[in-house]
From TrEMBL:
<protein>
    <submittedName>
        <fullName>NGG1p interacting factor NIF3</fullName>
    </submittedName>
</protein>
<feature type="region of interest" description="Disordered">
    <location>
        <begin position="10"/>
        <end position="41"/>
    </location>
</feature>
<feature type="compositionally biased region" description="Basic and acidic residues">
    <location>
        <begin position="32"/>
        <end position="41"/>
    </location>
</feature>
<dbReference type="InterPro" id="IPR036069">
    <property type="entry name" value="DUF34/NIF3_sf"/>
</dbReference>
Amino acid sequence: MNTQEIFDLSIKTGVENDPRGGTGVKDVLSQNKKDYEDLPKRKQAEYDKEKFVNPYSDSRFLVGDRKRKIKRVLVGIDIGVGEVMLANELERRGKKIDLIIAHHPEGKALARLHEVMDIQTAVLACAGVPENISQGVLHDQLENVWRRIMPVNQYKSVMAAELLDIPMINVHTPADNCVWRLVDEYIGKKKLKTVGDLIEALKEIPEYKKAAEIHAGPSIFSGDERSYVGKIVVSGMTGGTSGKGSEKIYERMSHYGIGTEVAMHVGEEDREEAIKHYINIVIAGHMASDSIGLNIIMDKLERAGVEIVPCSGYIRHSRNAKRKRVSGTRAVRRA
Ligand SMILES: [Fe+2]
Ligand SMILES: [Fe+2]
């Protein structure tokens, strides 16, 4: 596979697992085209035309040769300058890295993170919260997120990769869509009574099991082991940033019969609001959840003969092999 093919496959996998469904994704792409056409000519020049084909503005081909043949990739949750230097060092030790894949957005992908947040509306709609409610709550937060990200030095690691001539892409929401679907479908098949049952069920997923061993596994942030789970929503897994855009959503969740939220991470305000409205929060584990999403995509690369080198918190678990094994921190040390 070459770099462009790897990026395209990641986006395609994200679309296949998108909570908005195929039609919802098509609507986003055609709306982007319409927005572009409505712009004055001078603003059209600045418009990111990749938005006509890629519905995830937080996932981009960041730098490098799009045709380069890829045999080995370095994959990490966060790719800073340190990880780029690590790729360079691995090459020096005879383990050439052909491509770096980051999960969390860098460069131009970070600047547009807030544009994928409408996915959260679709996730909550699946659990019975009307779209107008979650859209309204979310809308207030979009500009806040943008204002928080805008001043960040977004190009440090991308520039380092460019200087060292290592292609770099990032795959954020496509991977998060994959973990959302896996966890949502997995929980949907289980008969769970309490939050304790939910925690134990999550720990049967290899990445969460591994995370629990390093004290980063599923944890209760609101409620306790004996709390009834009620209706579960996996709402803090995909859609850009953490949570549902605003802590105000918890009141609405309780109105629409949701008992427990499963998320990657939430803020303190979210927790306080959830407690107030008797909603349980289970934090499945941030790095472990991001790893599940990446693993679903990396398994496809592995099947195409690409070697995956995990770093930066990424817990690699292949679902390709008959004998499943979890690596991750061990692999980094070995490198
Ligand atoms: Fe993520
Ligand atoms: Fe994340």
